[in-house]
Structure formats: C-alpha cells, structure tokens
C-alpha cells in the first residue's frame, strides 16, 4: 500500500480515538502494557494535551517506545499527532451530558422519540429512500461505513439482510484494515452512515479516490456532501440541519431513528426481491 493510500485509510480510523481506547480496555488483560496506557489516557483525558510523553511513561511505568508503538497501532503517526484528536473525545463526552441534561427527562425523551419515529417513517416514503433501495438491491458488493459508536444499527441490518440471502460488509472507524475500500469499483456500493454528519465530514477527503458509487444516510444538509455522493438519503425532515463543522451533538435520531430506518429499509429490500 503506498503512503498516500495509507494516509487516506488512517484518516478514517483516526476519527474514533475513544473507541480504539475503549476497545483495548475491554479486550486486553489489565497487566498488559496497552491496557495500562489506554486506561491512563481515558482517566486523564482532560489533561493529556498538556502532558508530555515522558510523564505518561513515568506514570504508567512503561518506556517511551512502548507508548509510540501503542500510538501507531491505533492509527496515529506519533504521540503528538494523537493528542490533536483529544478535543474530539471531549466534544463527544460533552454531547452525552447535553443529551441527558433535562429536568423532566422521561417526558422529554418520550415525546421526542414519538416525533422522531413519525419523521423517519415519512422519510421512508420519499423518492430518495426508494432509489437507495433499488441501488442496494442491484449491487453485488456493498460496504457500509460508519463511526464505531454508531454502528450497532448497521450491525443489526447486516444480520437482517443476510437472512434475505445478501452478504454485505461493515467497516467502522475502529477497523485497522480498510484496504478493501480502495479495491472497490464503479460496480460496487459504499453506503456511509453519519446521522449528524460529523463522521461524513471527517472522512470526506478520504473518499475522493474510492471508485465505488457512494451514498449517504444523514440529517446534515450541508452542500459539502453534494460532490461526494451520488445519492443522499435523509433520516427525516424535522431533524435536518446544515453544518460543515464537527460539533457536539447527540439526538434521538442517533439513538433510535437509524435503527428504525434500517428496519424499514430491510422491509423494502425484502418486498422488492420477493
């Protein structure tokens, strides 16, 4: 793989530093060097940007070379480069607090879920939704690409569509091997899922050289995506907004809307092939 291709693939992986750290925490033994470094970074996220690699090595009782290997293994060229993405984690964490910070949360979220589900059902009747179903059914090779923390709905859909006799692949920002994306051809379909548009914005430049036909599922109406995708399918009308900046956002479309979207999408794929 040449350096240019490698940089584009790593650009996708870099979007989700938090997921990479949590994955190591969830799968490694607590005495493992990677576990120790990941736990330290997660527990000290607020101050990491002002902390030197020497301090972290001392605090974790590991060598600087161990930290550098750790950093490269999760998709970064250097410790300094990794620190550039710390703000994204802090923004992400802030979005969880903002989402739940309502005095009457149960009533609030209950009403919002009802509105979101109605909106997604309406979106499933649009011309764009039907076009996406036709494209999906006509392609032999399909890859879904999403941020790791938004991938649960995609994983369920992958299982649903397999019951329909169609095998698709799912890649997320946590994947360490995304070389297949550069092997896709014009006959293939790359379906990007980015409810808020944050992930799609982060990877927009990395998609330019991928030859597959590209479609996007989102709420973000920014014109930035118009040149990157042959079809944009919106999750709803009420939740639409426009932004070219990655910002703190979590909403009911992320938590519930995408699951319903894929449930309806699977139904229409099934009916069309019946």
Task: Describe what this molecule looks like in 3D.
With 274 residues, this protein is an alpha/beta fold. It folds into 2 domains: 3-93, Arc Repressor Mutant, subunit A; 104-273, 3-Layer(aba) Sandwich (Rossmann fold). The protein is 51% helix and 9% strand. It has 12 helices and 5 strands. The protein has helices at residues 3-13, 17-27, 33-43, 53-60, 64-73, 79-83, 86-100, 105-123, 127-138, 152-162, 198-203, 252-273, and strands spanning 142-146, 169-172, 189-194, 213-218, 231-234. Strands 2-1-3-4-5 form a 5-stranded parallel sheet. It is globular, with a radius of gyration of 20 Å.
Topology:
Elements lengths: L2 H11 L3 H11 L5 H11 L9 H8 L3 H10 L5 H5 L2 H15 L4 H19 L3 H12 L3 E5 L5 H11 L6 E4 L16 E6 L3 H6 L9 E6 L12 E4 L17 H22 L1
Parallel strand pairs: 1-2, 1-3, 3-4, 4-5
Helix pairs in contact: 2-3, 8-12, 9-12, 10-12
Summarize the structure.
The protein folds into 2 domains: 3-93, Arc Repressor Mutant, subunit A (Orthogonal Bundle), CATH 1.10.10; 104-273, Glucose-6-phosphate isomerase like protein, domain 1 (Rossmann fold), CATH 3.40.50. The protein is 51% helix and 9% strand.
């Amino acid at each position: 793989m040449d350096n240019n291709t490698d940089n584009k693939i790593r650009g996708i992986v870099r979007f989700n530093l938090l997921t990479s750290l949590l994955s190591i925490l969830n799968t490694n033994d607590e005495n493992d060097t990677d576990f120790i470094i990941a736990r330290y970074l997660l527990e000290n996220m607020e101050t990491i940007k002002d902390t030197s690699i020497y301090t972290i090595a001392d605090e974790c009782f590991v060598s600087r070379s161990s930290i550098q290997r750790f950093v490269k293994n999760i998709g970064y060229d250097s410790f300094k480069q990794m620190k550039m993405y710390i703000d994204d984690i802090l923004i992400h964490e802030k979005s969880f607090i903002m989402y739940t910070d309502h005095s009457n949360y149960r009533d609030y979220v209950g009403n919002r879920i009802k509105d979101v589900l109605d909106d997604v059902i309406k979106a499933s009747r649009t011309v764009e939704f039907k076009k996406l179903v036709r494209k999906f059914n006509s392609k032999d090779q399909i890859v879904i690409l999403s941020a790791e923390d938004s991938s649960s709905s995609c994983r369920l859909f992958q299982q649903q569509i397999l019951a329909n006799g169609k095998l698709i692949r799912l890649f997320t920002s946590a994947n360490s091997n995304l070389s297949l994306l550069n092997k896709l051809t014009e006959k293939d379909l790359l379906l990007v899922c980015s409810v808020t548009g944050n992930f799609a914005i982060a990877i927009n430049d990395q998609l330019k050289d991928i030859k597959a036909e590209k479609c996007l599922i989102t709420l973000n109406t920014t014109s930035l995506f118009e040149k990157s995708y042959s079809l944009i399918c919106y999750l709803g009308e009420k939740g639409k907004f426009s932004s070219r900046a990655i910002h703190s956002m979590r909403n009911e479309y992320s938590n519930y809307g995408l699951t319903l979207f894929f449930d309806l999408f699977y139904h229409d794929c099934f009916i069309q092939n019946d």
